[in-house]
Amino acid sequence: MLELTTPVQYVKGVGPKMAEILAAKGISTVGDLLLYLPFRYEDRLNPRGIGELRAGEMATVIGEVRNSGLFRTRRMPIFQLTLGQGRSRLRCLWFNATYLQGKFEPGQLIALYGKVEQDSHTGELQIVQPQYEMLGDSGEDTATSLEVGRIVPIYESAGQGRVTARWFRRVIRTALENLNPDLPETVPAAVRGRLALVSKREALWKVHWPEAGESFEALQSARTPAHVRLIFEELFFTELGLEMKRRQQRAQTGIAFEINDRVRQAIKKILPFHPTQAQKRVLKEIAEDMQKPHPMRRLLQGDVGSGKTIVSFQAAIIAIENGYQVALMAPTEILAQQHYFSARRILENAGYRIVLLTGSLETDRKREIRRHIAQGNAQLVIGTHALLEEEVEFARPGLVIVDEQHRFGVMQRLKLMKKSGDGTAHVGTAAPESLPRAQSRDPAERSAAERNDPPEPDVLVMTATPIPRTLALTLYGDLDLSVLDELPPGRTPIVTRRVSDERSAEVWDFVRKQVEKGHQVYVVYPVIAENEENELKAAIKMYRELSGKVFADLKVGLLHGRLDPDLKDQVMRMFQKGELQILVATTVIEVGVDVANATVMVIEHAERFGLAQLHQLRGRIGRGAAKSYCILMTGGKVTEDGEKRLEAMARTNDGFQIAELDLELRGPGEFFGTRQAGVPNFTVANLIRDRQLLELAKREAAAVMDGPNAEITSEEISRALITMRAKWQNTYGLVEVG
Ligand code: ADP
Ligand code: MG
Questions:
Q1: Domain residue ranges of the chain, discontinuous segments joined by +
Q2: pLDDT value at position 414?
Q3: Extended beta strands in 250-403, E state
Q4: Ligand 1 centroid vs 217 CA: distance in angstroms?
Q5: 256-484: which CATH architecture?
Q6: Could you tell me what percent of the chain has a pLDDT over 90?
Q7: Residues of the chain with pLDDT > 70: what percent?
Q8: Atom of ligand 1 nearest to the CA of 619
Q9: Is the CB of residue 358 below 6 angstroms from any atom belonging to ligand 1?
Q10: Which of 102, 402, 609, 737 could form a disulfide with 613 if both were Cys (CB 3.0 to 4.6 A apart)?
C-alpha cells in the first residue's frame, strides 16, 4: 500500500529511469505525483461529431486516421492528416512538422484538440496545429479505457516529451488505486468543517478523475471542490507559517519609544508643508507601532511621489528624540545622496546629526564615519550597501528604514538587522521548530528579555511598487501594511502620449518649447551601450546626437550606471540645481530622483520597458505644479504585451491599477523580481488565479491560532513550519527580515 511519502519509484509502472525524469520535475514521492495536476481536461465523454464543429471554437475530436503524409510547399513542409468519423472527414495540419512523418497508421484511433478554423480558399473546416494523442487499439473496451468515454486529464509531458500525458494518466491512476484508504487528514477539522472541504482522498481522486457530472468550466478554472481543497491546503499552511512567524516577532522584546509633547513638537517642527491625510494616518500607524514594547515590522507602500520620505523622517525623529540611532538604506548611491541632501535640508536646522556612508567614500573618511556611528554621535545614518559592511556597528540602533525594498537582497537586510546590539539578537534566525505555541510555550524557548538580549530595533520598509492590496496583505503576512494612497496637493495629472520614433522631430520641438518655458526634461533609453542590442539607440550615442546637433544650444547632461560615481553625482546635482536643461539617462534615474521642475519624460523604445519600470520613470515628473508630459516613443515592432503596457500607461496614472495589470502580464515570479526576492514556489496554487483563496487561507490561519486549543494539533503546526520553510526560505525576502 502506498503512502503519500512513499518514494515514487514504488508506484507500479515507474522504474528508476522514469523516477529520474520525475525527480527533475520535482516529483519524488507519491504525494508529489498526486499533486502533479492536469493543466486542462478534455471532454471525451461526449466526443464531438465532425459535423457539429463550428469555426473559432476549441474542440476535442476523436476519430480514426484515414491517411497522413508530408507535403512541401514553397515556404515550408506541412504535415497533413485526415481524421475520419464514419463518413465525415476533418483535415488537420501541422506546419514544419517533418517529425510527424511515419507516426500515424491508417485506422488508428486518435484524439485531437485544437482550434477549429475555416480554410479561406475551400471554406472547409480544419484544425491547425492540434495537440494529439494516440488512443488504444480501436478495439479497446471504452468502458475501462482511461483515454475515452470520460473527462480525461491532460498533463504536461516531461523529460522532453518522453513522458507523455498518457503515461501520467496510467501511473497516477495506479497510485490512486493503491493509496492507503485511510489517508490522514491534514487541514484541521475545525477549518474543514467551516469551509465544508472535501476529504483529502476524495480531492486527490477527483482532481485527476472528475466524475461525469462535473462542471467543465469549474474544472478548467480549477474551481471544483477537489481543486479548492488542494489549493486551499497549500495556501493555508503557508499562511499559518507566516502567522506563526508574525506572532513570534510580536513576542520579541523591542523598544517602546516614548512620544511626549516634546517629541510631537519636534516632529511638527520639521514639516516644510502640510502633510496629506494619508501621511497623517500612516505616521499615526507607525507611531503606534513604535510605542509598543515589541519590534515594529511595517511595510509602507506608496506610489511614486506620494511623499514617503517625509514620513520616514518623522519616524526617524521619534527614535532620535528617544536617544536611539536610525539607519536609512537606499538602493543606489544617487538615492542615498538624495536622501542625505533632503535630510540635511529638513533635519539639520533642527540640530540632528546626519551622516552619509556610501561605498565610494575614501577609506579614511569611511573609518571616521564608522567611528561616529559606533560612538553614537551620528543620529541618522544614511547609506547604501556600505551600511551592511561588517565593520559598521551602531551604538544604539533604534530604527531601520529600508527604502525601495525590491532592490535589496534578502540576506542583506537580514545582515543589517544582525548588526544591532552585540550580535546575539539575530532576527529571523530562531529555529522555527522552537516557535512559541499560542497556548503552551516550550520552556526551552525563553523570551529575549529572559535571555537579556538587547531589544530588536524597529523596521520600516518602504516601497513604491504598488502591490495589489490583497496580495500584499497575504504575502507580506508577517509585516503590517500602511498605504499612502493620496498624492500631495497641487499636482496636475501627467499627460501620457505614445508616438512612433519616426515623429521624433516633433517630439524634440516640443521638448524645446518646454525648455523655453524654463522647465527641464528627461530623455531615457533602455541600454547604455549597443553590445547585444545593436538596433537600440544607446544613451551615449543619442547624447552625442542631442547635445551636439538637436539641442546644441542647450545644456544637456548624460547619466548612466557606468559613469564614475563622482561624475554621476555631479551630473545629478547639476540637473537638480537647474544647471542642465535636458538629462539623457538610462534607467538609473528610475527610482526616487526628485526634481520638481522637470516636466517632460521622453522614453525611447518604450516598448522595451516593463510596466512597473515605465510607471516608475513617469513618477519622476509631475512633481511640481506645472503640467507634465510623458512621451512614450516606440521604435519598430511592438509585441502584444508591449501594446498592453503602452495602452495601460496612456490610460491610467494609478499605480495600483498598473500593478494589477503588470502582475497579470508577467506573473508573480517576474512581478516580484525573481532573483532578489523570488516568490514562494507553490505546487498547486497560483497567486493570480487563487487570490480569494489566499485571503481565505490567511483568515483561517489567524482563526486557528486564536481559536481554542483543540483547533490545531502539534502535527499540524510542524507541518505548517515545514511547508513554510520549503516554500519561503531563501525565496521571499521579507519573511527573513523578521
Ligand atoms: P516618494 O513617495 O516617491 O518617495 P517623496 O517623498 O520623494 O515621494 O515626495 C515627492 C515630493 O512631494 C517631494 O518633493 C516632497 O517634498 C513632496 N511632498 C511630500 N509630501 C508633501 C505634502 N504633504 N505637501 C506637499 N508636497 C509634499
Ligand atoms: Mg522615495
A1: 1-45+150-183, 46-143, 191-251+684-738, 256-484, 495-652
A2: 43
A3: 297-302, 325-329, 354-357, 380-383, 397-403
A4: 48
A5: 3-Layer(aba) Sandwich (3.40)
A6: 43
A7: 82
A8: 3
A9: no
A10: 609
